Amino acid sequence: MYRVAAGSPVPPGVAVAEGRELLVDALLGQLSEIAGSVREAIEAQIPTYRVLNSGTLEEEIGFQLERVLRRVLASARSNGAVGGDYELAELAAIGETRAQQGVPVDEMLRAWHVGIEVIVGYSRGVSARLGIEDAAVLEFVQSALGWSDVAMAAAVGAHRSAELALGFAEEEQRARFVRGALSGTIPADELAIQARAYRLDPDGEFVAVRALLSEESPQRKLEWLLGFHGADRPGLSAVADGCVVGFLREPPPRDLAAVVGVGPPKPVGRLAASYRLATRALTAIQACGLRGCYDIDAIGLRAAVAADADVGDALRRRYLDPLADGGSARELIATLRAFLTSGMHVERTATRLFVHQNTVRYRLARFEELTGSSLRDAEVLFGVWWALQLDECSRRNPQAEAPDIGGDSVAHRADPTDA
């Protein structure tokens, strides 16, 4: 095998493989210069790399180039064997580092291609100076590209794994912020700092939302429906106790194909109050078997009906259970419901039920007889309404006698300014 000093021409007749070895030796001798040129080219073409430490970047480029060149040299002597696990692990570590530095995988690939272009340019200049045959240069380039594919596969795999891990960590950190903001457990000064970090106005108002997860409404679909991924409705979300919880600048549409409770607008520092009312609204929605997006104003007294099952059960026993003794409980309950809906007007009630006015009067009198109460008493009317609401909710959603949507994990700190 011939050994030729760098800069000396190759004697005629030197084999292609030996010419390739001479080319690699010469490039290794210029490794520092080549690494600097690659760094400059990468920084010129890819802005992301300009924020990285130039000295560290150049050292890493030099390491990668040396690995490529020595692998090309080794493949010439071992009939194209690829690199060992140790070398690939070292290159994979660089891919992981790029992910941690925030360099996207496509820009990492582009930087690698820039480096290959620079080293190919150097190889042409060196081969021309040393008189190395074109066939040797071609084999060098092919071998370098082949090893580069193997190396980049390792780097890309590590980059994607690290990116996934970082994504999970970032998502969990965001979820902790959302839960802390909704529970009121983050100190005010820290809350403002974190809000700005997520590009949220700490002085702006947001509505808390709590939406029930289900097979028909999985997490990602529900987040899109609520508007958490829309640029025109900024906010953040997390998952807690079988619900998507979070806060938005504007409330979601009323007619959503989901079960959603929404609170009133509040500053970030008082989101706990909004979330508490969103939770109460959701409790009532679930108990009454409703669908859509409701706030506490839209739910009204049904929120109290859903929240206080003991009172509701007592009123149902007092005003509805005795009706079964007369054998016409269904007709009496339907008449009571229509009577209250019609503003307690007998004529309107009769029209609504398609019966004679005297039939309505008889049924109302029968109710008073069976329960021992008077519908002229406002307290009785309110109790009957409460019992009827609970009865309707129970019919719509038999499983919601005692609503439970798991409100303990995101605890609510009371807002003294919120009634």
Automatic annotation (TrEMBL):
| Occurrences of domain PucR C-terminal helix-turn-helix (ranges) | 332-389
Q: Which part of the chain is the RsbT co-antagonist protein RsbRD N-terminal domain?
A: 33-174
Indicate, by first and last residue, each region the UniProt record lists as having compositional bias (Basic and acidic residues). Answer: 410-419
Any Pfam family hit: RsbRD_N
Taxonomic superkingdom: Bacteria
The cross-references to InterPro entries, in alphabetical order and at most eight, read: CdaR-like_regulators, PucR_C-HTH_dom, PucR_C-HTH_sf, RsbRD_N_dom
Cited PANTHER family: CARBOHYDRATE DIACID REGULATOR (PTHR33744), PUCR FAMILY TRANSCRIPTIONAL REGULATOR (PTHR33744:SF7)
Identification of the protein by name: Helix-turn-helix domain-containing protein
Region Disordered, residue ranges? 398-419
